């Protein structure tokens, strides 16, 4: 088991990539704190983990609310005694072209995708510094590297996450903390499943593997980066995109 005796926090763990990552981490021996703004969805993840005889607990957390993050982080410390891994997975989209994008669309995406990562990273890293080790994994995107039509806000947020990842790696490495990001390509989640079939086909065609990614593809990347197999990797952005940006 690659994460035996580790404790992991996964934001947005109630669905999609977050849920798959939580389950995979539990299979590999981690105790998992499942954070999600939707407690019902988080509890579904916990139920799946319990059926695998894993250890986990659901917490209702809004990543834009610093007081809530501090309170729940303290609860995780009390209940699990430590935090070894933080996966900043929570995120949203609110697409529109530059001309049509509303200010609230910009603010909401930046608040959750960028400031939310900052909030969780800053608060949880303080505990990791005290214990002298830890791993922080941030959800970036190929959109943050290359841009995408109709996603000014999303691209800006994910480019910002990449910048924070590299900065944190430099600042926290001397404290025994590794920081990396995963940049997914087009992944088949509840969000993308709602798209028209012709759009999904277009996304498949952009991949040299001619398929969409799965949440498990991304969870596998998180697992590798969280494990000791990646002990000499920090400050990197791992693209998991099926060759869509070659």
Automatic annotation (TrEMBL):
<dbReference type="InterPro" id="IPR011284">
    <property type="entry name" value="3oxo_ACP_reduc"/>
</dbReference>
<dbReference type="Pfam" id="PF13561">
    <property type="entry name" value="adh_short_C2"/>
</dbReference>
<keyword id="KW-0560">Oxidoreductase</keyword>
<dbReference type="InterPro" id="IPR020904">
    <property type="entry name" value="Sc_DH/Rdtase_CS"/>
</dbReference>
<comment type="function">
    <text>Catalyzes the NADPH-dependent reduction of beta-ketoacyl-ACP substrates to beta-hydroxyacyl-ACP products, the first reductive step in the elongation cycle of fatty acid biosynthesis.</text>
</comment>
<keyword id="KW-0276">Fatty acid metabolism</keyword>
<protein>
    <recommendedName>
        <fullName>3-oxoacyl-[acyl-carrier-protein] reductase</fullName>
        <ecNumber>1.1.1.100</ecNumber>
    </recommendedName>
</protein>
<dbReference type="GO" id="GO:0004316">
    <property type="term" value="F:3-oxoacyl-[acyl-carrier-protein] reductase (NADPH) activity"/>
</dbReference>
<keyword id="KW-0521">NADP</keyword>
<feature type="binding site">
    <location>
        <position position="89"/>
    </location>
    <ligand>
        <name>NADP(+)</name>
    </ligand>
</feature>
<dbReference type="InterPro" id="IPR036291">
    <property type="entry name" value="NAD(P)-bd_dom_sf"/>
</dbReference>
<comment type="pathway">
    <text>Lipid metabolism; fatty acid biosynthesis.</text>
</comment>
<feature type="binding site">
    <location>
        <position position="187"/>
    </location>
    <ligand>
        <name>NADP(+)</name>
    </ligand>
</feature>
<dbReference type="InterPro" id="IPR002347">
    <property type="entry name" value="SDR_fam"/>
</dbReference>
<dbReference type="GO" id="GO:0051287">
    <property type="term" value="F:NAD binding"/>
</dbReference>
<comment type="similarity">
    <text>Belongs to the short-chain dehydrogenases/reductases (SDR) family.</text>
</comment>
<keyword id="KW-0444">Lipid biosynthesis</keyword>
<dbReference type="GO" id="GO:0048038">
    <property type="term" value="F:quinone binding"/>
</dbReference>
<keyword id="KW-0275">Fatty acid biosynthesis</keyword>
<comment type="subunit">
    <text>Homotetramer.</text>
</comment>
<feature type="active site" description="Proton acceptor">
    <location>
        <position position="154"/>
    </location>
</feature>
<feature type="binding site">
    <location>
        <begin position="154"/>
        <end position="158"/>
    </location>
    <ligand>
        <name>NADP(+)</name>
    </ligand>
</feature>
<keyword id="KW-0443">Lipid metabolism</keyword>
<dbReference type="GO" id="GO:0006633">
    <property type="term" value="P:fatty acid biosynthetic process"/>
</dbReference>
């Amino acid at each position: 088991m690659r994460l035996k005796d580790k404790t992991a926090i996964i934001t947005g763990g109630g669905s999609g990539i977050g849920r798959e990552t939580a389950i995979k981490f539990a299979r590999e021996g981690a105790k998992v704190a499942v954070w999600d703004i939707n407690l019902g969805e988080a509890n579904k993840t916990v139920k799946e983990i319990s059926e695998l005889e894993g250890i986990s607990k659901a917490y209702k957390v809004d990543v834009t609310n610093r007081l809530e993050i501090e309170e729940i982080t303290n609860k995780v410390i009390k209940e699990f005694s430590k935090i070894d891994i933080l996966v900043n997975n929570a995120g949203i989209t609110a697409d529109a072209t530059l001309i049509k994008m509303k200010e609230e669309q910009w603010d909401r995406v930046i608040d959750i995708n960028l400031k939310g990562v900052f909030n969780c990273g800053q608060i949880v890293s303080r505990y990791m510094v005290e214990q002298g080790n830890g791993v922080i994994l941030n959800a970036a995107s190929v959109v943050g590297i290359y841009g995408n039509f109709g996603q000014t806000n999303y691209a800006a947020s994910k480019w910002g996450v990449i910048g924070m990842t590299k900065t944190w790696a430099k600042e926290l490495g001397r404290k025994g903390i590794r920081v990396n990001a995963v940049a997914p390509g087009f992944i088949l989640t509840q969000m993308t499943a709602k798209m028209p079939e012709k759009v999904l086909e277009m996304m498949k065609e952009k991949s040299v593997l001619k398929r969409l990614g799965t949440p498990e593809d991304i969870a596998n990347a998180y697992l590798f980066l969280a494990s000791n197999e990646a002990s000499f990797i920090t400050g990197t952005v791992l693209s998991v995109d099926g060759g869509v940006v070659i």
